[in-house]
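Sample entry (271 residues):
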Amino acid sequence: MKTSFTIYTLLLPLLFLLTSCDLEQEVEVKLPPYKSQLVVECYLEPDKSLRAVVLESVSYFNDPELPLVPDAEVFITHNGKTIKLPFSPIQNKETGKYYTHRKNEKLNLKPGDVVTLEVKDKKGRHVTGTTTIMNQVPIEAVEWKFNEKNKAYLLTSYQDDPDAENFYRYMVHRDSLSNSSQRDFVSSDRLTNGQRVSYGSGYDYEQGDTLVVSLFHIEQQYYDFLSSISDARSANGNPFAQPSRIVSSVKGGIGIFTNLSYNRKTVVIEK
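Predicted structure, serialized as tokens:
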């Protein structure tokens, strides 16, 4: 008991000293002024009117809303013809997506065609991008199988071209494209070149479910863009993850300009 009392009396002043110290210290970090950039998103789709989104980036510490840029001018050039997309905000009722610039004109796009994008505003900012039209890769089969609990898994198959490096995006929506996707990921043929490829799922579906299955044959620049977005989302708020930047396909700003070549099937899960 004497030894314990001696140790306690020796530690008590030290504990009092530690608790009385102010261990918090404010550190002021001076950040350089943030320079906003044009944020551009434009996808060319078969038999669809020309549409684009042009916004302005903001600092990480600002409200997470990107301002519109009404004075931005958008130009798309195909086969020597340049088309201007006027500022005319609208929401697509089918997908729920918003667009800031649009033109009710369709391009006669063929695989291998090169299309360019140019965006500029009155602040002197200038964004350019290029996309090469991809060919469609057909979905060969969409199959499903039930387990003993009447739950079904989905299996989607296609044939990869052995003579080219290919990149894909696979999506599954329940009932409608306006709903959030049930599955959404990108892949390459680096390990499956020239093979018949199948994408599976868990036992996530029931009898009567309507599924919209989409297979996109995409450019590498779109693959890199989507992969970087996925990495950035994973790193956000994770103190152990490396910071990740968005890999843009455009020059002079942030964003993506590409074309969407896809094969799409709608199936109803039945026994």
